[in-house]
Amino acid sequence: MICRERKDDWVMFDQHKHGLLAGEFAEAFHSERYRSSKRFEEALYAVKDHDRGWIYLDDNPFWNDTKDTPYTFMDFPVAVKLTFYSKGLDEIQLNSPYAALICSLHFERLLVQANFEHPILTKYMEQEQKRRKQIQLELDLIDLTDNSELNYDLHVLKFCDDLSLYLCLNEPGVDKEHEFPWWRDGFTVSENFDCTEGEIIQAYWKNSTTVELSPFPFDSAFSVELTCRIVPKMDIVKMGITEAYYNTEETHYSFRIQSR
C-alpha cells in the first residue's frame, strides 16, 4: 500500500494500480531505443506488472501498531514483503522470463538502497541470483551487468515507477520545497535516455491537476487517472483499518502530464 498522511485522513493507493499507471507511462515513453527493442512488449509487461506481488497484501490493509500508521511499501515487515515479491516474480516469469529478470534486478536495487540486514533478505538474494542465472542461460544472455538493452529497460522501469510514485506521494499542486524529498533534484537514471540528451528529468506541479516535466520524455501531453481511497482517521479508530478502508468509496484523480 502507498499511503500519504493528511491532518484528518490517510490517502491510500493500491500498489498494483500504481504499477499499472507506471505501465501507462512506459507505453507513452518517447524513446526509439526502447520501442525498437526486440523485447519491447516484454519490457513493457515488466513495468505494468512489477508490483503484482502486492495484490495479495493490499487486499487487506495492515496497521502498524508501533508507528500508529498504516503499513506501507516502505515499512512493511520484510519477511512477508519478500515472500510476496517472490510470488509476484514467479507469476511474471510464467509469462515472460525476461520481464521477471528486469523486475528481479529492480527489486534488488531497491533493497540494496534500503541498506538493512535480515536473515531472510540473504536467503531472498540468493534465490533471486539463482532465478536470474537460470533466465540468463535460458535466454542466452552473456553478461547481465554489461547488457545495454537490459539496463536501458531497467532504467525505464525505474523512471516510470518513480513518476507514478511522484503522483501518489505528493499532495497535488505542492511547491517544490514541500515535495516528497526523493525527486526534488529530478529522476535519477533519466539522463541515460536517448530522449533527454543527458539531462535529468525534473518535475513541477503547475497546479493541482497538472504536472510539467523538463525535458519531456513522452510523445505529447496526455492525461492519466489515479485511484485511491481517502480514509478518515476517525473511521480507523472506530472500526479498524480494513473495515474503514473498504467502507470508503474510491476517489479518482485526473492529472495532465505535459512539457514545461
UniProtKB/TrEMBL annotation:
InterPro entries in alphabetical order: DUF3891 (IPR024992)
Name of the protein: Serine hydroxymethyltransferase
